[in-house]
Write a structure and sequence with these properties.
Number of helices: 8
Strand content: 5-15%
Shape: globular
Radius of gyration: 17 Å
Structural class: alpha+beta
Distance between the termini: 36 Å
Helix content: 40-55%
Oligomer: single chain
Length: 211
């Protein structure tokens, strides 16, 4: 496998379905709240790149924690249901928490709401070329009208293939049935390891000293 940067490894670790400490039902559905003071300090001391990485990593941490808790307590099939019912509310909660618009989008979406727009499709292709070339992955940032648009790839590892691999091979038959029922237009399968499954697409206010 080609080498990737440390931020990407962090994202992959929290995305994976590996075993870890079990989490109680009462704790796994809430993001870690941050006070306005904490957010103001972060906005004035961090660069746009650092802010975008923080928003992506913290959101993935919450999603990964909930997903792993569901897998450990209820199995992979129920994890599919979790993604269907809980992923959007949790992502929206993190968007409110960070005062940002946080999305995960793909050229092969499972949910049509996750379909990438024209600009995002172009960035996905850029990241695919970077992964194929084995270069260190760096986020893409654009500033438009005082808003930072941040893009960073989501790259598959072996654990992702439980739900995004090849049906009947890396995806078990009962999981395939759940996916077919919940996502009749599912396009998010057929992946191997180290492939770009989608990107983080995050928009937030540019810090005053971003120049």
């Amino acid at each position: 496998m080609k080498q990737v940067g440390l931020p990407l490894l962090v994202l992959l670790l929290v995305l994976s379905c590996k075993q870890g400490p079990k989490t109680s039902e009462t704790n796994i559905l809430q993001p870690e709240a941050k006070s306005p003071t904490e957010m103001e300090v972060g906005a004035t001391t961090q660069t746009p790149k650092e802010m975008g990485m923080k928003f992506a990593q913290e959101t993935q941490k919450v999603l990964g924690k909930n997903l792993m808790g569901t897998i450990q307590n209820k199995g992979v099939e129920e994890a599919v249901v979790f993604c269907n019912e809980r992923a959007y509310p949790l992502t929206d909660s993190m968007s409110m928490n960070f005062n940002a618009r946080i999305k995960r989008v793909s050229d092969k979406p499972r949910n049509p709401d996750n379909a990438a727009n024209a600009s995002e499709l172009a960035y996905i292709e850029t990241f695919k070329k970077d992964v194929a070339a084995g270069v260190t992955l760096e986020p893409i940032l654009k500033e438009v009208n005082g808003k930072v648009h941040f893009y960073y790839p989501i790259v598959t590892n072996s654990m992702c293939l439980n739900c995004h691999g090849i049906p009947g091979k890396s995806i078990q038959a009962d999981v395939v049935q759940h996916l077919s029922r919940l996502y009749p237009d599912d396009k998010a399968t057929g992946y191997d390891v180290n492939e770009v499954r989608g990107i983080w697409s995050i928009v937030f206010d540019a810090p005053n000293d971003s120049n």
